[in-house]
Design goal:
271 residues; eight-stranded parallel β-barrel; binds glyceraldehyde-3-phosphate; single chain; 35% helix; TIM Barrel; alpha/beta; two-stranded antiparallel sheet
Length: 271
C-alpha cells in the first residue's frame, strides 16, 4: 500500500480535521495560507468541477507557498486522463511539492475506470504526485459510479485518499449534504476509516455545512479534510479567495477538531 509517508502529504492525526482551499493563482494561494488553510488545492474553477490548472499556475503557486503547506491539484476527469499519467501537462507531475492530483469520475460509469485507476496507481510510486479518485455525490447527473464504489476501488488500489465532491457546480445546484443524507455520509466515512482511507469532503459546502462535516469527520475519527472553494470566495467560486472567509472557516473547523490535522508538519513534509 502507498502510505501517507510515501506522499508529500504529512500523516494526518486520527480524530482531526483540516481545511483544504481550492485556489487558481499564487495571490489566492497566499490569501488561503494567511487565512489558515491546512492544504492548498490548485484548480481552475472555470474548467469544470475538477478543472485542471496550467503547469505555469501550479509552478507559480508551488514557488509562492514553498513547503509551508501541502499542495494538491485537480487533474480533470479520469476518462480524459492519459496513461501513463502526464496529468494533462507534463510539467505538472514535476511541479515541486504537489502531493496529490485528483481525478473525477464523470462519464466513467460505463467504462473500465477501475482498471484505468489501477494503472495510474501502478506508476504512482515512480511518478509523484499520487493520483486520487474524486467521487461525485451527484453521480447520476455526472454519469459516474456511486461514491461507495469509488471508495472500494480506492482501497483496492492501495490508495490512502479519496475526494468526495459534487459535479454540478452551477448556481442553484445541490450541495453535498443535499445529495447525501447525513447517515449515508457517516456510513461512507466509517467504511473509509475501516479501509484506512482518508476523505476530503467537499461539494458546494457553505459555512454551516463546513461545521456539520467537520463535526462528523471528528466524530468518525479517521482524520480528514473539508474542501471548499465557493465558501472561501468573494463573489462565488469563480470570484476570488477571501482571506477573512478562509480565516472564519478555519476557525469553525478548529472549534470542532481538538487537534490540528498535521501536528508533525515540517517533520514529514517534503522528501
Ligand atoms: O476541493 C474542493 C472543491 O474545490 C470544492 O469547491 P466548491 O466549494 O466550490 O464546491
Amino acid at each position: 500500500m502507498i502510505g501517507l509517508s510515501d506522499t508529500l502529504l504529512p500523516a494526518i492525526a486520527p480524530g482531526s480535521c483540516g481545511l483544504l482551499v481550492s485556489v487558481r493563482s499564487a495571490a489566492e494561494a497566499a490569501a488561503a495560507l494567511a487565512g489558515g488553510s491546512d492544504v492548498i488545492d490548485v484548480k481552475e474553477p472555470s474548467a469544470g468541477p475538477l478543472g485542471a490548472p496550467s503547469a505555469q499556475t501550479v509552478c507559480a503557486i508551488s514557488k509562492r507557498i514553498g513547503n509551508r503547506l501541502p499542495l494538491t491539484a485537480a487533474g480533470g476527469e479520469l476518462v480524459d486522463a492519459v496513461s501513463p499519467p502526464e496529468f494533462r501537462e507534463p510539467d505538472l507531475a514535476a511541479a515541486r511539492g504537489v502531493a496529490i492530483v485528483k481525478f473525477g469520475l464523470a462519464r466513467a460509469a460505463k467504462t473500465d475506470w477501475r482498471s484505468q485507476y489501477a494503472r495510474l496507481m501502478a506508476v504512482a510510486s515512480a511518478h509523484r504526485p499520487l493520483p486520487v479518485l474524486a467521487a461525485y455525490a451527484d453521480h447520476q447527473a455526472a454519469n459516474a459510479p456511486p461514491p461507495a464504489e469509488a471508495l472500494s476501488a480506492t482501497a483496492q488500489a492501495g490508495s490512502s485518499w479519496l475526494v468526495l465532491d459534487t459535479w454540478d457546480k452551477s448556481p442553484g445546484a445541490k450541495a453535498l449534504l443535499e445529495c447525501l443524507e447525513r447517515d449515508e455520509l457517516e456510513r461512507l466515512l466509517r467504511t473509509a476509516q475501516c479501509a484506512g482511507v482518508h476523505v476530503v469532503v467537499a461539494g458546494r459546502l457553505d459555512a454551516s455545512a463546513v461545521a456539520r462535516v467537520a463535526e462528523l469527520l471528528v466524530k468518525v475519527g479517521g482524520g480528514g479534510l473539508v474542501g471548499v472553494r465557493g465558501a472561501a470566495c468573494h463573489g462565488g467560486r469563480t470570484g476570488t479567495i477571501d482571506e477573512a472567509a478562509v480565516r472564519q472557516l478555519a476557525k469553525t473547523i478548529r472549534s470542532h477538531a481538538a487537534r490540528p490535522p498535521f501536528p508533525l508538519r515540517g517533520v514529514l513534509t517534503d522528501s
